[in-house]
Amino acid sequence: MANAATLFSGIVYGQVASHDAGTDGDWFVDGDNGDDTNTGTSTSSAFETVGAAIGAADASNGDQTVRIMGHNVRYREEVDYIWNGGGPTSLSIKAYGSDRPVISGAEPLTGWTNCGASDANTVGPNWPEIHKVTVNTADFPAPKYWRTLMTESGSALKICGLRRADRSFPDFFFDNIDQTISEADETDLTFGLREATYYDTIAHPSLLGGFTDTQLEQTTAIMYAFPNIAYFQEVTSVFGQVLQLEQRDFRPNSAGENGAYALLNVLPAMQRGEWGYQDHGNGTVTFYVWPRKANNLTGRMELAVRTRGLRIYRSLSDTPCAIEGINFEMFAGEENGGLPLGLDGLSDLTGNTATIKHCQLRLFAGEKGMEIKFQEQGVEIENVTFRDGIGFGMQTIAATDKPLFNYRIRNCQAQDLSQTGFRMFGVRDCVMTDIRSQRTSGGGHANAINFYSGCDKCVVLNYQGGVQERDRLYEGYGTNQRSSNIYFLHSTFSPASDGRGYVDQSNAGGIDQPNIGEGGGLINCWVPDMPDRRGSQGNGGIAVGRDIMPWAIYNCVAPAIVNTGGTVERKGNILTNSSVTGDPSEALGAASGENAIYADVAASNWRSRAGSPLTSATGTDASAIILSLEGWFPNEDFRRDANGKVWNPANPGVGPFGTAWPETREQYAAPQVSLVPTEYLVQGSTAGYFVDPSNVPSGTARLTFRGRFRFPTASLSGGRLFSQESTGCDFNLQNDGSVRAGVEDGTGAKMLNNDLILPAGTIVANQWLDIEFDVDQLAGQAIVSVNGSTTTTAFTGAGSNGLFQSSREVSFLATSGGGGAVPQGTEIADLEVDFDGVLHKAISNAAVNANSDNWHRGGEFAGQP
Which domain of life is it from (predicted)? Predict the structure, then answer.
């Protein structure tokens, strides 16, 4: 146990920033320098738009590859490809090398002016802080303006409105019921009901009485609706501050009681970091914003106007496709619609394999980020990130009589979503490995990972639901609905507010259940016992058995395991909530969670303690189950734990780490996942380094440094890997392998003052490390990623002005004067820095180019190979 691994180290989740998708192709797209009148057949004669390149591929035969060029270059277009002719045999749409082009649904908003006193009747007394711009609705269309997104310097703003004061979820999730104001709490809040059942009017004098009827027009109500969902009803008229709602069949509950609402687009309620709109009905619309920083109004404001990014519709069999290295960003929503990335097709096709790798879907207001519909064979999804979305991360949709077969989903991440991260409908013969969810289900009434409606033979290895306070799910839990043969191995389910971590939600088998009576299981899983989420004992950490599918619960760690019906076999488990004894014959032991699993509740410092049953438990032999799964999937490795270590099902231990639960706080072990670059620089005896000849531009709010390094020693005290001169933004290496940071805002005030941002042992010798240092003044935080393991440190200084100093330059490998240089023998690749999310500089990995770069200072670098 002395060498036990750190929890969840060594696994990469989501898109890898340095992934190289290759450069060979048939068609090339360059959004900065291309032209659709070019031939498109080379980088020097590239098309300007993705649509032109796909059109050229469609007119060709054989295997076709489209390369999209430009790191963070925005392709502001909707691409809808219907693959129904002779066309290509296969189609690949990939980034060029390690570029990360962005298919964007947004358009820049320019021409902002400060509101004047005449605007007070519209936006209220804060008009001096609010800015506006009037545009043609044809140029900035949206299905509904309240369903779109506005960003400032790449960060989403919130739509203004009236919400419950003590809400716990971010307002970005405008579809969550947590923000609704209940008539149970407000004595003067009343809802008029149509047909004595459905929401019709809202009267709330104490809150709405402070606004004029005109100010309440063009608002949209969020209604808490039966059974537990947020629905929207637009306000059609206002009289005497009473809101008349559009007719929709939404009801408070089965008895028409306990209604609740919130209100969007209340312009006089606008606060800093919020926006709203006024549609004039004459072909123009005025947008209003109270920016975080007024200087961002020049060139840094965008509005999502398109609802779709890239859709491939296949009407032919045997037409495989691949999408790799593409980012999708900023898409407006529409009711039951809105889709950044979709694969669609007829339900009776065969041979339509698909591969989606190293993509990111971010800032979408539609129902889902990615949809795989009727694509029934061989879909592989790897290293895809779904984040910052008002909807689901990804969803599969099967035809009624055509399930989806042979899915493989690996190393994906869902974070900051209002709904389910992974919504798997009708999939069979599916394996998901190394999947992470953080801060999902912000809209309530959503699940962490959901197998639904006829799924069969699905195995999940290492699903992680977030165990830290800042990472755990807002709501939701792992779930199965009307499916069979669903198995989770070495997975962690953070409990929902009612205490449940995993639930078998079905109440009946259903005709679409493929193998009624065949089982499922949770093997070596964990539901952390979080005291503020224990809920009622009857819910339990794991609650299964409602369906007629039997369950095997082996070697799990949970506050309680509750049998709600059916057949549940419980063996080798440890119950961690001392208030729940469970069945002593089926549990190895019961112990207080604080004593068995973690030592510091407030810090979620998860580890076992000396004497915990975790340290000595052998668990129940799970070999028979694993052999059965290996029979279904002979090419999959199910004999590893949540850290990727070899695991023996005959001696399985208990929980996702088997017998390797950490006993005490240990040094962080850097994960061993970085690949050796094909070409890199080597630091010489006279230190070389790189300095920007120009200062950071005025108005810069975010610096992102990245690179790949192999250090000859872990003792690197004083080394400045990344820097803005004079402690403006420093990444300081320490002699114990830890990292400290100094960050100043635009006034020179200390936001981080040599604060520890990575613990001892993070920087190790003789191993390639992918490092990214992302500092955001507006968000007030520094995020560091080492080989995919991410740590966020909030600013400790108060009151950042939201900017970096514009009188100082940035540098790599030393200060701008050469101090703190990394040592001789350090190997270096892929040095980059972004300003406000846009690539500012990349240093070549070829020594001849790096040494002649105008940023180069000091000694010459050697090159490898």
Answer: Bacteria
CA dihedral sign of residues 231, 235, 236, 238? positive
3-class SS shares of the chain: helix, strand, coil, % to 5: 10, 40, 55
Give the up-direction half-sphere exposure of residue 9: CA atoms within 13 A in the CB hemisphere: 17
pLDDT higher at 251 or 592: 251
CB 264 within 8 A of CB 209: no
Is residue 1's pLDDT more than 60? no
pLDDT, mean over the chain:
87
- Written as six digits, the tokens of 92 are 């690949």
Q: Residue 636 CB: number of other CB atoms within 10 A?
A: 14
Residue 859 identity (one-letter amino acid): G
Greatest alpha-carbon pair distance for the chain in Å reads 84
Count Cα atoms within 13 angstroms, Cβ side, for 244. Answer: 6
Name every residue whose Cβ is closer than 8 Å to that of residue 754 and which is 6 or more positions away in sequence: 732, 740, 741, 742
Quote the pTM value.
0.78
Q: Under a CB-based contact definition with an 8 Å cutoff, are residues 154 and 258 in contact?
A: no
Q: What is the pLDDT of residues 599-652, one digit of tens each?
A: 454 455 566 656 667 777 788 999 999 999 999 999 999 999 988 889 999 999
Question: How do 155-156 and 220-225 pair as beta strands?
Answer: unpaired
> Among candidates 802, 610, 612, 605, which has minimal Cα distance to 702?
802
Is residue 348 within 8 Å of 314, Cβ to Cβ? no
CA dihedral 825, 830, 836, 841 (to 10 degrees): 90
Q: Which residues of 615-632 are buried (b: 16+ CB within 10 A; e: fewer)?
A: bebebbbbeebbeebbee
Tokens of 204: 């709330």
CB 43 within 8 A of CB 5: no
Give residue-wise pLDDT tens across range 379-394. 999 999 999 999 999 9
* Helix and strand totals (H; E) in the chain: 7, 66
How confident is the model at residue 507, as a pLDDT?
55
Give the helix/strand (H/E) hosting 329.
strand 327-331
For residues 647 and 828, what is the distance between their CA atoms, to the nearest angstrom?
A: 35
Per the structure block, which two tokens stand in for 469?
């306070």
Residue in 423, 426, 422, 384 with CA at minimum distance from that of residue 405: 426
What is the predicted pLDDT for the residue at 122?
97
pLDDT, one tens digit per residue, over 56-81 is: 999 999 999 999 999 999 999 999 99
Q: Across residues 99-111, what is the average pLDDT? A: 97
Question: What is residue 787's three-state secondary structure?
Answer: coil
What is the rounded CA–CA span in Å between residue 419 and residue 335? 15
Classify strands 198-203 and 242-245 as parallel, antiparallel or unpaired: antiparallel
What is the pLDDT at residue 668? 29
Compute the distance between CA of residue 209 and CA of residue 121 in angstroms, rounded to an integer: 15
349-353, 420-424, 697-701, 804-808: which range is least confident on average?
349-353
Distances (CA, A) of 521 to 542, 562, 778, 849: 11, 14, 45, 56
451-464 per-residue burial string, b: 16 or more CB within 10 A, e: under 16: bbbbbbbbbbbbbb
Contact 60, 37 (CB under 8 A): no
Q: How far apart (Å, rounded) are the C-alpha atoms in residues 51 and 81?
A: 8
In angstroms, the CA 772 to CA 787 distance is 9
- Residue 274 identity (one-letter amino acid): E
For residues 279-289, average pLDDT: 97
Beta bridge partners of 732: 720, 740
Three-state DSSP class for 532? helix
- Spatial contact of 503 and 481, defined as CB atoms under 8 Å apart: no
The pLDDT value given to residue 592: 41
pLDDT band at 513 (very low <50, low <70, confident <90, very high): low
- 104 phi/psi in degrees, rounded to 5: -115, 140
pLDDT tens for each residue of 548-587: 678 999 999 888 888 887 788 888 888 876 544 444 444 4
Tokens 């926006």 map to which residue? 275
* Tokens 């959503």 found at: 446
